[in-house]
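4.2 Preliminary Data

To establish feasibility before requesting continued support, the project team ran the inverse folding procedure on a target of 249 residues. The structure was first converted into the token representation described in Section 3, and no sequence information of any kind was made available to the design step. The complete token record follows.
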């Protein structure tokens, strides 16, 4: 789904052979990604009896990890799929930055002994996904503490050039009507492709439920969603509770 420079494909002249009679059509899959900043989504599946121990250890020693790179948010999963699970987002300037961070962590004995080694025994499985913020979205910090919903949409192959605009309209319609607050929209780069994550914020699980029920009766939302789901293969969501040490509360 790599994005090509769309400015090269505005005419019917083939950019690879400009002097020939060959005609090319656009095969860009979306806007070019100019900003190197990306966000790593990490999910840890914990042994059921070890959840509290893990969170206490992370709370006590998270400063050893955040000394190396920026933590965006850290949550425990309340609803949606497997429980005894934590989800966290880390920000990097580019891939070289992440490589340097990993090298530094490998040399950090204090982090290894107090943070890494004790926690590894408590984890069943780890997952990592690299994502970019979509070009039309900035990361927004909510006004106060609340709960978060991570909605994950598996779109049809083809990239944002196929489904980007309808998806954008569906998201903005929810936001513009005030049914929920948008934190960020992320497009997967490494992991399952054609996947988009939308991170929402609400004051509580009940306020989220009320907003969702109201949106289902709003013809503006219904129309926008109906257009977007033409490109949808599946979706799932998780209700996330921010930890006491999470920057996003």
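Position-by-position output of the design step:
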């Amino acid at each position: 789904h790599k994005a090509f420079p769309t400015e090269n494909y505005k005419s019917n002249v083939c950019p690879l052979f400009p002097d020939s009679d060959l005609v090319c059509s656009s095969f860009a899959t979306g806007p070019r990604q100019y900003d190197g900043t990306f966000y790593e989504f990490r999910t840890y599946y914990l042994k059921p009896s070890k959840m509290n121990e893990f969170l206490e250890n992370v709370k006590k020693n998270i400063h050893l990890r955040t000394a190396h790179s920026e933590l965006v948010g850290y949550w425990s999963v309340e609803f949606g799929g497997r429980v005894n699970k934590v989800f966290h987002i880390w920000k990097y300037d580019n891939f070289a930055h992440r490589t340097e961070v990993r090298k530094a962590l490998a040399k950090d004995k204090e982090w290894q002994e107090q943070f890494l080694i004790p926690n590894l025994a408590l984890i069943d499985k780890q997952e990592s996904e690299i994502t970019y913020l979509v070009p039309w979205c900035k990361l927004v910090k909510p006004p106060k503490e609340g709960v978060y919903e991570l909605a994950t949409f598996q779109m049809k192959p083809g990239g944002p050039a196929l489904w980007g605009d309808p998806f954008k309209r569906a998201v903005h319609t929810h936001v513009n009507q005030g049914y929920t607050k948008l934190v960020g929209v992320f497009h997967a780069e490494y992991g399952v492709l054609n996947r988009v994550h939308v991170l929402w914020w609400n004051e509580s699980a009940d306020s989220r439920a009320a907003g969702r029920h109201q949106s289902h009766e709003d013809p503006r939302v219904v129309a926008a969603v109906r257009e977007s789901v033409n490109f949808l293969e599946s979706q799932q969501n998780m209700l996330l509770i921010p930890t006491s040490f999470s920057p996003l509360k």
